[in-house]
Amino acid sequence: MKTQVAIIGAGPSGLLLGQLLHLQGIDTVILEARTPEYVLSRVRAGVLEPGTVELLREARASSRMDREGHVHEGFTFSFAGRSERIDLKSLSGGKTVMVYGQTEVTKDLMEARAAAGGISIYEAADVALHDIFSDKPRVTFVNAGQTVELECAYIAGCDGFHGISRKSVPPEAIRIFERAYPFSWLGVLSQTPPVADELIYTNHERGFALCSMRSSVLSRYYVQCPFEDKPDQWPDERFWNELRTRLPDEAANRLVTGPSIEKIIAPLRSFVAEPMKFGRLFLVGDAAHIVPPTGAKGLNLAASDVYTLYHILRRTVLDGRTDLVDKYSEICLRRIWKAERFSWWMTSVLHKFSDDPFNQRLQLAELEYYTGSLAGRTTIAENYVGLPFEPIE
Question: Does the pLDDT value for residue 42 go beyond 80?
Fold first, then answer.
């Protein structure tokens, strides 16, 4: 079996890359260890930067997003009994974000790839990467009980933090930067109307809270909880009481509660692997970096990696620009570290790290300074809507 680009992982980054390359006439095969149903069961981020939105449109996978997604022009910080709105549109030169769930993005990309005739192989077992530092890399896998060898020119590792792609790199060739946070997020999905038209990020003496949404009748809420907590320690009544306590009064009074559809606990970490290219293997998205979800950067960073790799491979395969592949890591990492900084900052000012009143006062002073300054609000808005993609020249 042969292809030009083997893509490991059928999450949104692998599907988006495959669709963009396919539309340029570049052959791709996507290998996914899980079933399509399992992939679609993973509920993740729901805030899309304008750059991500445009990539989905270029991939011809945006019609439902454009119809059903919610354009947000701002969001609110709540702290010290006050609410401060960040007007994204006016502060960032007219840019907005799109609230549209990652599950829906994945579904749309799956359907677009199927309609375009792209090859996706699900339940590919025992995936292994070979000869990644040669000019003829290979991928082997087991499908329907048969071992298959896939010959290719390039491999895109889009298989997430726990995938095989990064594990295939010699340990001495890669450097890891990591920070684990001493708390988790308890997330609840409920079939209730959102408490507000835009997201609310709350710094409270009891801990962080976030009010988000998936649609006009589907809400997503989070509260900070101890790292070791389990979902069954948080019955619905306890969760709603805690969320209401942490919200500003006007939001707490509007809160509509109901049975949880889903309840998960997610630890927070910052993680970057350098470099992101090893011979003919490129790491993409969570395979190379993780951000705390506070800044809504995870899926969007993966999309920016896809943008960079897509344009590099297009120019390489179609135009013979073989000099570009070696620029992949440096281009991606410039944007990644800026997004890591912003996500770290959002996490640092909004979460309860300890009972130290000095630290709590510093958080409030930081929030007051940034929200009270035009320069500060502009910095927040520019980062939240996403820094520009770097042109591939």
Answer: no
Told to judge if 230 belongs to the known catalytic residues of this protein, a careful annotator would answer: no
The 3 state secondary structure assigned to the chain is CECCEEEECCCHHHHHHHHHHHHCCCCEEEECCCCHHHHHHCCCCCEECHHHHHHHHHCCCCHHHHHHCEEECEEEEEECCEEEEEEHHHHCCCCCEEECCHHHHHHHHHHHHHHHCCEEECCCEEEEEECCCCCCCEEEEEECCEEEEEECCEEEECCCCCCHHHHCCCHHHCEEEEEEEEEEEEEEEECCCCCCCCCEEEECCCCCEEEEEEECCEEEEEEEEECCCCHHHCCHHHHHHHHHHHCCHHHHHHCCCCCEEEEEEEEEEEEEEECCEECCEEECHHHCEECCHHHCCHHHHHHHHHHHHHHHHHHHHHHCCCCCHHHHHHHHHHHHHHHHHHHHHHHHHHCCCCCCHHHHHHHHHHHHHHHCCHHHHHHHHHHHCCCCCCCCC
Catalytic residue among 107, 297, 351, 352: 297
Catalytic residue among 181, 201, 222, 328: 201
In this predicted model, what pLDDT tens digit does every residue of 73-91 receive, in sequence order?
Answer: 999 999 999 999 999 999 9
Set out the domains of the chain in order of their start, with CATH numbers: 5-70+102-177+270-352 (3.50.50.60)
